[in-house]
Amino acid sequence: MPSKMLIKRIALLTLVLLIAGLTGLSLASCGSVYHYGYKTSEDFAEVAPGQPMEEWGMARGEPDLPDHEVTTPGVGDPSLRHVIRRGSIDLSVSDTREKIQEIQKFVREAKGIIAGSYVYEIREGQYGARMTLRVPENRFEAALEQLENLGKVTNIQTELEDITMEYVDLESRLNNQEAQEKRLTEILDMAETVEDVLEIEKELSRVRGEIESMTARLTRLKDQVTYATINVSMREEAIPTGTVSPLAFHNLGNRISEAFIGSINFILNSASGLIVTFMALIPALILLIVIGGIIWLLVRRHINKRTAAGSQNEGQAAGSDDKI
Predict the structure, then answer these.
(1) What is the pTM of this model?
(2) What does the buried/exposed string (b/e) look like for 17-51 if buried means 16 or more CB atoms within 10 Å of the residue's CB?
């Protein structure tokens, strides 16, 4: 019996090591295929205008690989590429708050979201804003066109980041880890000793940790690919000197209301501050009153003594006058 148990344990441990080795080999082979079958966005930038893509490898001095070796999914088909789209635009507008409402409207219509918004006052009556928009990647160009129509464009930038290699590699690694988790779970059901169970659970915990990390990373990549990011910066046009501002009485009612409420809040805050200060000084005031009372009693006693001494001297002087 002991020899059979030993053989079973050795077989289980050998199977675990074999699974880990095969997984490592598969990942290494995937990495080597991606290295030859994929070209980054920086590499594509080096292709001369009008140069056929077939000549790209010769221009780079790389070996001409057979077609059957390029097996990475999504690399040969442009429609399956994974691209992160980013853009930024600076606008000079006539009314910042009005343009913000227009942006909010077309972002809702595009099924996007406003990830961040900040409105600030440049000077009295002149405002600026910064916004971060997330729109579906197929609405990226349309969103930029709509933004350009909101005012005068002072700066615009776009960026495309091709992450197909990273995306496909991460998916492949995640699938391998999930397959390894399944096999380890099956082996765990076959374990008969505590030592085998602990060893397999340790490896299973490591694999599950990698699965969680890869899943989180893949989710972030999917979000970045699905929704393009556009950073918008707006500033109201400065009013030239000598020109009457048409916005002098703009939103006057709200401005008066805000000023009135602000004044009341200032008075209330000042009053509450005085009350808090007075309450904080009560212990010190009590101490000062006690010390003042003691000093007053000592001074009064001293004055009484001097008064009594003065009266006594006057009595003695009057007696001496009578004798004379």
Answers:
(1) 0.51
(2) eebeeebeebeeebeebbeebbbeeeeeeeeeeee
